Amino acid sequence: MPEQHYEPEPAVAGAVIGGTVDVGVEEAGTPERRPKGRGGPGPRDKPRSLWSDAWRDLRRNPVFLVSGLVILFLVLISLWPSLIASGSPLKCDLARAQEGSQPGHPFGFDGQGCDVYTRTVHGARTSVTVGVLATLGVAVLGSVLGVLAGFFGGVWDSVLSRVTDVFFAIPVVLGGLVLLSVITSNTVWPVIGFIVLLGWPQIFRIARGSVITVKQNDYVQAARALGASPSRLMLRHIAPNAVAPVIVVATIALGTYIALEATLSYLGVGLKPPSVSWGIDISAASPYVRNAPHALLWPSGALAITVLAFIMLGDAVRDALDPKLR
What we know:
The protein contains twelve helices and four strands. By secondary structure, the protein is mainly alpha-helical. The chain has a two-stranded antiparallel ribbon with strand order 1-2. A two-stranded antiparallel ribbon has the order 3-4. A hairpin with a 5-residue loop joins strand 1 and strand 2. Helix 4 runs parallel beside helix 7. It is elongated, with a radius of gyration of 30 Å. About 11% of the residues have low confidence.
């Protein structure tokens, strides 16, 4: 018999009820490809992580953009205050005490004849320094202790939890009045140390609860079953996935610490003259607020804007890192 040759029949794909559409074999068997660019086929989509999604959301959030610009400006004038204020904050002239706005002195003068504008600009350095360093200290100490307590549990967890209860029972302002009143240093370090001492229990509880939740996940149990050491479990699998709540709380708390430094300086137990601080200026301007309200208005406004900017930044970071809000 002569050899018979058969041509492949076209593939048949369903279209609508009661009809068919003929599709060629090559077209039916070829997976859908992404459009080609100048360099050839487009790259495949990379797997998205929590951090990449958070950064994408933050870039589109006007609250984050506005607060970020304000904070960037505060950081710049903290590092280089001479960019916008060339005078010295300690140069005062009693003959100009309580005078209002003048050419070259837009904020007027305080009760000692010091330029309010210059002191307001230089006061940003103190507030930003205290806020950032205190937040770093609180975050590091609270996170380390929280991770250890949440991972190991047992007696270690019980002891640290009871210690945090003791610190939570101490009123912050009253504790500052008692502890800082015996310190005569004019630097920011006693204030930073006090904030770290009373601030770490909050971060400790956040980190502890997050670690307890994360260590129950399947990928942690699988790594443990494969023989991963405790240090590897904490550093590679637990800590990176438990750090998001700590970042959110620490960012919001940074503004609170700035306000706390100003409060303690206002009460006379934080920074002391000749240091330059918004709290010191507010305290010095309070007795003559009726005669020279500008001396109180400008440092108070700068403090309020700074605290608000950091709180807004913390809210934006919280919204971006919380999957439940997506």
